[in-house]
Structures are given as structure tokens and as C-alpha cells.
Amino acid sequence: MNKIMMILIIGVVACATASARDNDNDPYIHVDWSPLFTDNVGWNIYSGGFVVGWNNASGINSAMGRSIDIGWLSIIGAKYNTGHGQRITMGAGIDWRNYRLDTSARFVDDGDHISIENYPEGATSCLSRVKVFSITMPVIFSQRLVHKLDIFAGPVVNFNVRSSVLTQFRLGDEKVKLSRTGIHQVPVTVDIMGGIKWRGIGCYVRYSPCHVLKGDFAPAFTPLTVGVGLAL
Fold first, then answer.
1. How far apart are CA 65 and CA 56, in angstroms?
2. Which among 2, 96, 161, 172 is least buried, having the fewest CB atoms inside 10 angstroms?
3. How far apart are CA 51 and CA 68, in angstroms?
């Protein structure tokens, strides 16, 4: 009798285990990984927005061709596809931007303030720039126009966690290099970004009404960026 009861118990447990494994409708057992980096209708896990751009800084004599923006808008995030041509993406990423002056002027840091002055007479190999590193949180809305062609726009919140200033030039046989980190960047700024893309490859414009550095510490300037991107 005991042997029969033992066999019955083992059989019931085995059947229950097999049933649990085969029951795809049980949310506690079945895990659906289909949203990973897909474009299905509904929510999807998302990663993308590799951008390279050129910065113009309104308020200072910047060299746009040599002022670079490099970023990854969403290292990891979420995308919602309505199924009717609209998509909303949001996530967290990183951005690195520098603002380089033309060769006629330089940033001068006296420890308390940053000003813009001319280079000493006879200076050569002139370079002067401000650099800012940010953690970004974009929320981008895109609309399908025709097959694989979209327009997109939305805000990008920047948490500016690191900044530095660098000036270097040569004066005769002497090479002068002055640099410092922590130059009172505005901690949180907001950009407005928009553009057009085809199959994830596109171009964009990114404007910020916010100052890059605090106005009581440095010259006030605002950035405008034009660039290209992948996996937008």
C-alpha cells in the first residue's frame, strides 16, 4: 500500500511539473523576450541614436567646423510603436561636446572667472576650448511619412556632470598649456532636437536655449548643433 501511494504521489508531482512547464499562458512561468530590440507594435526595448555633430556657440566666436558633438542618445531605453506610423522612444545615454574658439581669441581662466581675450602677439598653434560631458535623457516622437522615411522631434534633458577648459599655444620656443576641470557648468539643461531619417540613418538639428556655463562665472553662450546619426 505504501509503495502504491508513493508511486501515485511521484506521478502527480511529475504531471504537475510538466503541466507548469507547458503552460505558456501562466505569467509567472512564461517569459516573453520578443520585445528585445524589435519594432513590434507596443512596447520594445530600445538602444540607439549614435550621433556626430558640429557645434556653433551663439554668444562667442566659436569655430563650428572644429567644435564637435559626439553622443549615444539612448544606451538603453524603451520604444512604443503605435502600429500606425508613430513611435515614441525614451532612454538614458551620454554626450560629449566641445566648444572651440576661432584662432583669434582664447579662454582665460583666472581661477574665479573665465573670460575671452586675444592671444599674445606672435602666438602660434593656437587652441582654446570648453568641453562638457553629460548624461542624457531624450524623449523623441517620430512620424512615418512614406516607406522607411520618418521625421522626429523631442526634448533631450542633459545632466552635465563634468566640464573643463583648455588653452594651449606656442610663443617662440615656449609651449603654453593651461587647463582646469570643474568650471561651473549649468548642471541641468534642455535641448530641442529634430530631424529626418531613412532606415535609421538621418540628420538632425539640436538647439538649447540654456547657457552652457553659469553666467556669473563665464561668458554666456548657447549651443546649436547640426549633425548626422545612426540607429535614430
1. 8
2. 2
3. 10
Other beta carbons within 10 angstroms of residue 53's beta carbon come to: 24
In this structure, what C-alpha cell is assigned to residue 77? 531605453
3-class secondary structure per residue, 89-143:
EEEEEEEEEEEEECCCEEEEECCCCEEEEECCCCEEEEEEEEEEEEEEEEEEEEE
Beta bridge partners of 197: 150, 202
pLDDT digits (tens, 9 = 90+) for 127-157: 999 999 999 999 999 999 998 899 999 999 9
Distance CA 46, CA 78 (A): 5
- Amino acid making up residue 129: R
Sole residue written with cell 520604444? 79
**Residue 55: closest CA among 40, 65, 43:** 65
Which residue would you say has higher pLDDT here, 30 or 92? 92
Instruction: Give this prediction's pTM.
Output: 0.80
